[in-house]
Specification:
24% of the residues lie in helices and 26% in strands. α1 runs parallel beside α2 and α6 packs across α7. By secondary structure, the chain is an alpha+beta fold. The strands form two sheets. Strands 3, 4, 5, 6, 7, 8, 9, 10, 11, 12 and 13 form an eleven-stranded antiparallel beta sheet that branches. It has a two-stranded parallel ribbon with strand order 1-2.
Length: 356
C-alpha cells in the first residue's frame, strides 16, 4: 500500500469481536474500503458488522477485501488469490465483483448472524472448530482434525427443511431488492435486527414444515451438513462444485448413515469434493434457504424416540456438537439460513473464472 501511495488506517484487533464492534460504530463515509488482514474469522466479523447497523444500506456499498494472513484462508481461492500478493494487487487495482451473503437467524436466542462463507453442522463443523487444537502444525491442521473426527464420528439427530433454488418467490426477491437499494433509508434504532429483510426466517419461525424438502429423524441420522456460499471452505478444500460468489443460492450437502468413510477421507486428502457426491453417500441441492432444528447427537445414530429396539444410547445436547458459521462456533438451537443476493462488493482477481 505504501509503494502504491494509498493512504490507510491500521487497526490492530485486541479481542474476539473487535472488528464487529468497530464496524457497528465507524463512519463509513470516511473510508473507500475495508480490508481484513487475517484468516476467515476477521472477515466474518467485518461482514456481520457492516450489515448489523441501522444504515446498512449505505454501509454495504463500501467494498470489502481480504489479505489472507491466517491459518485458514478460504477466501483466497474463492477470490482468485493463490498468494497474498495477489490479494493486495486486487485491492490496489480496485477490481471487484458482487458477493452474496447469508443470514442465520437463531430462533431461541433471537439473534441474527450475517456471513460470507458457509454454515456447517455435524462432521464438518466438528472438525473445523476442533482443528484449532492443531493450529501449531499450520495448514495441515484441518487434515489431522478430519481424520481424528472421522475415527470418532458423531451421529446427529435433527429436523431439516430445505428451500430449493427453484422455489425462489418473485415477490420476496423484488421486495428485498427495492428495500436494499435505497441507500438513504435507515432502519429504526429499536429494530429487532438490522440488515436485509429475512422473509424466509419470519415465516419459518412457526414450523419447519413449510420447506419443500424434509429430512426428519425417522428418515435417517445426519453425519454431515454444509450450506456453502462459496466453493472453498478452507485454503485447499473445495467442498462445493456448483456455487459462486454471486450465484444466488447456497449448495446444501448432507449425508446420513450411509456415508463412505473411505470416500470422505479421500475427498479431504484430495482437497475437493468429488463430482459424484453420491459415491461417498452425499446429496447436494442448490437452495435459497435452510431450516435446521437440531436435537442432539450420540455415537450410534440410534435414537430412543425413533428406533424400536431397546438399549439405545441417550441423545446428547452438550459435550460436543456446534453450529459453525464461517468457522465461528455457536451453540446448537433452531436456525434459519437465507441467501441475500449481491449485498456486498468484494475485491477479487480480474482473472477469476467461476465454473459453477
Amino acid at each position: 500500500m505504501d509503494l502504491a501511495r494509498i493512504p490507510y488506517k491500521r487497526i490492530d484487533t485486541e479481542y474476539k469481536g473487535h472488528v464487529q464492534d468497530f464496524m457497528k460504530e465507524v463512519d463509513v463515509k470516511q473510508y473507500s474500503s475495508f480490508i481484513a488482514v487475517s484468516g476467515d474469522g476477521v472477515l466474518h466479523e467485518l461482514v456481520h458488522g457492516i450489515l448489523d447497523r441501522s444504515d446498512w444500506r449505505a454501509a454495504r456499498l463500501v467494498p470489502v477485501g481480504t489479505i489472507g494472513a491466517g491459518s485458514s484462508n478460504a477466501m483466497n481461492p474463492n477470490l482468485g488469490h493463490p498468494f497474498v500478493e495477489y490479494g493486495v494487487l486486487s485491492i490496489i487495482r480496485e477490481t471487484s465483483r458482487p458477493m452474496d451473503v447469508i443470514s442465520v437467524t437463531f430462533h431461541k436466542s433471537n439473534k441474527v448472524v450475517y456471513s460470507h462463507l458457509n454454515l456447517s453442522w455435524a462432521y464438518i463443523a466438528d472438525l473445523d472448530i476442533e482443528s484449532d487444537n492443531f493450529r501449531w502444525i499450520g495448514r495441515e491442521k484441518t487434515t489431522l482434525s478430519a481424520i481424528n473426527r472421522l475415527l470418532r464420528l458423531r451421529r446427529y439427530r435433527a429436523h431439516i427443511g430445505i428451500m430449493p433454488a427453484t422455489h425462489k418467490a418473485d415477490e420476496w426477491a423484488s421486495a428485498e431488492d427495492n428495500d436494499m437499494h435505497d441507500a438513504t433509508k435507515v432502519d429504526p434504532p429499536d429494530s429487532a435486527a438490522f440488515g436485509p429483510p429475512r422473509t424466509l426466517a419470519a415465516h419459518a419461525v412457526s414450523s419447519v414444515d413449510m420447506f419443500p424438502i424434509q429430512l426428519t429423524p425417522s428418515t435417517d441420522c445426519v453425519t454431515y451438513l454444509t450450506a456453502n456460499n462459496a466453493p472453498y471452505i478452507s485454503t485447499t478444500f473445495k467442498a462445493s462444485n456448483n456455487v459462486g460468489l454471486a450465484s444466488g443460492y447456497v449448495e446444501v450437502t448432507y449425508m446420513g448413515k450411509k456415508l463412505s468413510r473411505v470416500g470422505l477421507i479421500s475427498a479431504m486428502l484430495n482437497e475437493r469434493a468429488p463430482d459424484d457426491l453420491g459415491a461417498i453417500g452425499a446429496t447436494s441441492i442448490k437452495a435459497r434457504g435452510l431450516r435446521l432444528d437440531p436435537y442432539g447427537w450420540n455415537w450410534t445414530g440410534k435414537f430412543p424416540e425413533v428406533d424400536e429396539e431397546a438399549g439405545h444410547e441417550p441423545v446428547k445436547t452438550s459435550g460436543g456438537g456446534v453450529i459453525a458459521i464461517s468457522g465461528e462456533p455457536f451453540e446448537m438451537e433452531p436456525v434459519t439460513l437465507e441467501v441475500h443476493d449481491k449485498v456486498l462488493t468484494v475485491f477479487a482477481a480480474p482473472w477469476l473464472v467461476e465454473d459453477f
